[in-house]
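Field log, afternoon session.

UNIT: design team B
ACTIVITY: writing a sequence onto a fixed backbone
BACKBONE:
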Protein backbone atom coordinates (compact mmCIF):
# COMPACT_ATOMS: atom_id res chain seq x y z
CA UNK A 1 0.00 0.00 0.00
CA UNK A 2 1.28 3.46 -0.83
CA UNK A 3 2.24 5.74 2.02
CA UNK A 4 0.62 9.15 1.90
CA UNK A 5 1.86 11.95 4.12
CA UNK A 6 -0.39 14.85 5.08
CA UNK A 7 0.50 17.89 3.02
CA UNK A 8 -1.27 20.67 4.89
CA UNK A 9 0.35 21.90 8.08
CA UNK A 10 0.74 24.74 10.53
CA UNK A 11 2.73 26.61 7.89
CA UNK A 12 -0.69 27.68 6.57
CA UNK A 13 -0.83 29.97 9.61
CA UNK A 14 2.45 31.74 8.87
CA UNK A 15 2.47 35.50 8.20
CA UNK A 16 3.37 34.83 4.55
CA UNK A 17 0.24 32.71 4.17
CA UNK A 18 -2.00 35.38 5.67
CA UNK A 19 -0.59 38.00 3.32
CA UNK A 20 -1.44 35.92 0.26
CA UNK A 21 -4.40 33.68 1.17
CA UNK A 22 -5.65 33.31 -2.38
CA UNK A 23 -2.28 32.12 -3.67
CA UNK A 24 -2.04 29.61 -0.82
CA UNK A 25 -5.55 28.36 -1.51
CA UNK A 26 -4.80 27.99 -5.22
CA UNK A 27 -1.62 26.06 -4.51
CA UNK A 28 -3.48 23.66 -2.21
CA UNK A 29 -6.21 23.13 -4.84
CA UNK A 30 -3.50 22.33 -7.40
CA UNK A 31 -1.83 19.97 -4.92
CA UNK A 32 -5.14 18.14 -4.44
CA UNK A 33 -5.64 17.93 -8.19
CA UNK A 34 -2.18 16.41 -8.53
CA UNK A 35 -2.90 13.82 -5.85
CA UNK A 36 -6.09 12.83 -7.66
CA UNK A 37 -4.34 12.58 -11.02
CA UNK A 38 -1.63 10.39 -9.47
CA UNK A 39 -4.25 8.17 -7.82
CA UNK A 40 -6.25 7.83 -11.04
CA UNK A 41 -3.10 6.91 -12.98
CA UNK A 42 -2.33 4.15 -10.46
CA UNK A 43 -5.95 3.02 -10.55
CA UNK A 44 -6.00 2.77 -14.35
CA UNK A 45 -2.69 0.88 -14.26
CA UNK A 46 -4.26 -1.49 -11.70
CA UNK A 47 -1.57 -0.50 -9.20
CA UNK A 48 -3.79 1.21 -6.61
CA UNK A 49 -4.39 -0.53 -3.31
CA UNK A 50 -8.11 -0.99 -2.54
CA UNK A 51 -7.78 1.10 0.64
CA UNK A 52 -5.65 3.82 -0.94
CA UNK A 53 -8.51 6.16 -1.87
CA UNK A 54 -9.85 6.17 1.69
CA UNK A 55 -6.37 6.77 3.08
CA UNK A 56 -5.70 9.69 0.74
CA UNK A 57 -9.08 11.34 1.36
CA UNK A 58 -8.76 10.94 5.13
CA UNK A 59 -5.59 13.06 5.05
CA UNK A 60 -7.01 15.88 2.93
CA UNK A 61 -9.11 18.87 3.95
CA UNK A 62 -9.98 22.33 2.79
CA UNK A 63 -8.71 23.49 -0.57
CA UNK A 64 -6.60 20.37 -1.11
CA UNK A 65 -9.67 18.16 -0.68
CA UNK A 66 -11.68 20.38 -3.04
CA UNK A 67 -9.00 20.06 -5.73
CA UNK A 68 -8.86 16.30 -5.26
CA UNK A 69 -12.64 15.97 -5.51
CA UNK A 70 -12.81 18.23 -8.57
CA UNK A 71 -10.56 15.86 -10.52
CA UNK A 72 -12.37 12.74 -9.30
CA UNK A 73 -15.74 14.27 -10.26
CA UNK A 74 -14.43 15.16 -13.71
CA UNK A 75 -13.11 11.61 -14.18
CA UNK A 76 -16.53 10.25 -13.21
CA UNK A 77 -18.27 12.59 -15.63
CA UNK A 78 -20.08 14.57 -12.94
CA UNK A 79 -21.14 17.99 -14.19
CA UNK A 80 -22.48 20.76 -12.00
CA UNK A 81 -24.91 22.98 -13.81
Amino acid sequence: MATVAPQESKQDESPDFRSAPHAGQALRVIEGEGKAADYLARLHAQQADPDELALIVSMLYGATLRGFCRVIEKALGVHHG
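LOG NOTE: The longest helix spans residues 21-44.
NEXT ACTIVITY: expression trials, pending approval
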